[in-house]
Design goal:
Strand order of the largest sheet: 8-4-3-9-10
CATH class: Mainly Beta
Shape: globular
Strand content: 25-35%
Structural class: mainly beta
Distance between the termini: 28 Å
Number of helices: 2
Largest sheet: 5 strands, mixed
């Protein structure tokens, strides 16, 4: 089992395994939520995820749609502000968790940068992972559904 928690430890969860994708998102919304160059998202299957404690500490901010769907939301611990998973926001068989809240090694590594046309002007992508634009990532997600 892989364990994860928020900064204060109030929200704790475990996942049986990480399945990916493992994406580094450079969109403006993820940069603002993370306060960094990108937010690291890791895909997990709903059936592999379980909260251990702290569901009552989770709050979700839903940003209104500003351009076109999908809407954007972020869930966080109300005690410490750390981003945390919130599988109740979707009925899909898998969902994304912020990889930074994992306490254990997921045994997979990031596989791509996404929404790179929105990267911070001071950021420089220095690895050799694929870099996908909004249109490329949206097209690839449509193919996989």
């Amino acid at each position: 089992m892989l364990r994860g928690s928020c900064l204060c430890g109030g929200v704790r969860f475990e996942i049986e395994r990480a399945v990916g994708p493992f994406e580094l998102c450079h969109c403006t919304r993820c940069r603002k939520v993370s306060g960094s160059a990108y937010l690291t998202w890791l895909g997990v299957r709903r059936e592999d995820f379980r909260f251990l404690q702290g569901v009552d500490l989770i709050m979700t901010y839903e940003r209104p749609i500003s351009e076109s769907p999908p809407a954007y939301d972020t869930s966080f611990c109300t005690r410490c502000g750390s981003q945390v998973p919130n599988p109740s926001k979707t009925r899909e068989p898998w969902f994304e968790i912020p990889a930074g809240v994992l306490d254990d090694d997921p045994f997979i590594r990031p596989d791509k940068h996404i929404y790179v046309e929105f990267k911070a002007p001071w950021d420089h992508i220095a690895d050799d992972l694929p870099q996908m634009t909004r249109s490329a990532i949206q097209a690839s997600r449509k193919q996989s559904t």
